[in-house]
Structures are given as C-alpha cells and as structure tokens.
Design a protein that fits this description.
The protein has helices spanning 12-29, 50-53, 57-64, 66-70, 91-99, 111-117, 123-141, 157-165, 201-204, 212-223, 237-241, 243-255, 263-272; strands spanning 2-9, 34-37, 103-106, 147-148, 170-171, 181-183, 228-234, 259-260, 279-285, 294-297. By secondary structure, it is of the alpha/beta class. It has a single domain (2-297), classed as TIM Barrel (Alpha-Beta Barrel), CATH 3.20.20. Strands 1, 2, 3, 7 and 8 form a five-stranded parallel sheet that branches. Strands 6-9-10 form a three-stranded mixed sheet, with no helix packed on it. Strands 4-5 form a two-stranded parallel sheet. A hairpin with an 8-residue loop joins strand 9 and strand 10. Helix 1 (12-29) packs parallel to helix 12, helix 7 crosses helix 8 (157-165) and helix 10 runs parallel beside helix 12 (243-255). The two termini are 19 Å apart. Zinc ion binds at residues 8, 10, 107, 111, 151-152.
Length: 304
C-alpha cells in the first residue's frame, strides 16, 4: 500500500498560509510529497463567475463553506481586487519546497484561466501558458519543471499536444485508477499520465452530511485495498482549515504501514518498463461532490 500526496496550490493564500504548515507536518512525519503550484496571478475571484454559469457550483460553495475555506479576499482577486502573483509573492517558499526534498511541478500559470478557457485554446496558446509558468519558475529556481498537473483536471487534445511538445517527463491531469498513456478514438499521446485515484476532501465534505473526520475513513477504506494511490489535496484547505484532519489522516495512513512516494519517483518506476504501461481512453466525466466535468480515465479498459 503506497500513497502519493499531490499538493495543489491554486491561490496566494494557499501558498503563503497553507504551504508552510504543510511543509512542517511533512518534515515531522518524514513524508516526501509532490507540490504543484499555479505560478501566475491569483484570479480566484473570477471563479465566482461560475456561480452563474456552472450548474451545481453555488450548491457546492454553500455545502463546503467555500468562503471559510478560501477566505473572502481571495474570492475577489481578479474582479474587484487585482490578481496578485502567486509564486513571485514568496519565491523563498518554492526554494523551501525543493530544499526539503519534495517535488515541485507546475499547476499552470493562471489557474482560473486554464479552468475556464482551456476548451477554446489552441495548442500554441496552451504552450504559451505553460511557458509563462516555466519562466516564473526558472526565474526563481534556475531550472524548469518536468511535471505538470492540469488545473481543475481540465485537459483537451490541444493541451495534451502542448504538454508533449514541452517534453514533460510525466503529467497528472486526470482522475482515474492507474497510470496510462492517454488516447481518444482519434489520437494518442506518448506521455505518462498518473491520475488522481482518490476523492478529494472538498468533494467528500458534506456528501451525506460528512465531516472532515468521516472523509478520512472513506479514504482509508479505499487505501486498504492496496496498490499505489494518488491523493490530491489543496494547500488552501488541508494546509489551513482542515489541517488537523489532514494531520490525522497521515497518522492513520502511517499506522497502517503505508509508505509515501513522490509522483516523479513513481514515474521513474513506470518509465523503467514503458511496455507495461497500458493505454487508456480519456473522457469527460462527472464526480460525486464536484461541479462541472473533469478529464477522466475511461472505465472501459482493465489494468493488464
Ligand atoms: Zn488546482
């Protein structure tokens, strides 16, 4: 039983307030993790537009208490307040992440832009967005990222093409069951995709009246079945208001004898025997507790 922690950083608040306590917790427990940071501006306020355009968003906001999770100010960035840069606001934090031995990958440049506009972007436009993120990272660390996690699990053929063109070592763009080479009926991409296999806390919260502690039980139940799992957490949530519950989750996972692996190390294992990596179709799907659609690994193919 192995667990990879994929820590998404979507907002400035998640970066400056959520990442430091998470780093401390991981160090205390001697756990390696993979951080994916949105490098550009925090335009979270624009996501409020989804209140009006995406079915189910308002219900989710109210159920999960999003204003409490994300903070009122964050919800105005990019609308009433200008969107502040995320990575450039605290470059020392990126250095701390890598100095601690964690993996640091890209979670896009402008998270909200990717999530809302990706479907209309050409390969060149997606590449430009990726290069903007790399430029910020190179300016701070001196080298580019080799891994990418799509904001909001949104991916299109143009985005897969752009990620191949930018030579990422692996990506984590979808929700699914095991790593694979993605394809559609028309296209396929020579890119290892390592999907998020477990539900997220913000999806589970409130489903059937669940509280954060109940969510841990659900996650542990899936983990018990064995294999390597990928859990996506959000620095805004698990690094702040659900910090205690997340800390409990790690303690329980370790008590059950599970080990932790960085996604990049998982990818290294996979690339050692590329012939054994299956192909799987990527489709647009919905998940319990999440508004809108996300890119998913098709249910149709069984792991060889
Ligand atoms: Zn995100």
């Amino acid at each position: 039983m192995r667990l990879a922690l994929k820590i998404d950083v979507d907002t400035l608040m998640g970066f400056t307030e959520g990442v430091p306590p998470l780093l401390e917790l991981l160090q205390e427990r001697d756990i390696p993790a993979s951080f994916f940071v949105a490098m550009g501006p925090d335009h979270s306020g624009r996501a409020v537009r989804r209140l009006f355009t995406h079915k189910g968003f308002l219900r989710k906001m109210l159920r999960t208490g999003a204003p409490r999770l994300y903070g009122f100010k964050t919800m105005l960035y990019g609308t009433l307040l200008p969107g502040p840069p995320i990575a450039a606001s605290a470059p020392e934090l990126l250095l701390k992440i890598t100095a601690a031995g964690h993996e640091l990958g890209l979670h896009g440049h402008d998270h909200v832009f990717w999530q809302d506009r990706l479907s209309g972007l050409s390969t060149t436009a997606v590449q430009a967005e990726i290069l903007r993120a790399q430029k910020v990272l190179v300016g701070i660390l001196g080298y580019p990222a080799i891994s990418f996690a799509a904001p909001g699990w949104q991916c299109t053929p143009a985005a897969w093409d752009a990620l191949v063109a930018e030579h990422f070592y692996y990506v984590s763009n979808t929700r699914g069951r095991y790593p694979y080479f993605p394809h559609t009926p028309q296209r396929s991409w020579p890119l290892v995709e390592i999907p998020t296999t477990l539900p997220t806390l913000d999806e589970l919260l409130g489903l059937g009246g669940r509280r954060a502690a109940d969510c841990n039980r659900d996650i542990l139940a899936v983990l018990k079945r064995g294999g390597t799992h990928v859990f996506t957490l959000h620095a805004e949530v698990e690094g702040r208001v659900c910090f205690r519950e997340f800390s409990d989750l790690l303690a329980q996972v370790q008590a059950r004898g599970a080990t932790f692996i960085r996604l990049v190390d998982y990818a290294k294992e996979l690339w050692q025997q590329p012939d054994l990596i299956p192909r799987a179709e990527v489709i647009s799907g919905t998940l319990p507790g999440r508004a809108g659609t996300v890119c998913c690994q098709s249910q149709g193919e069984e792991q060889p």
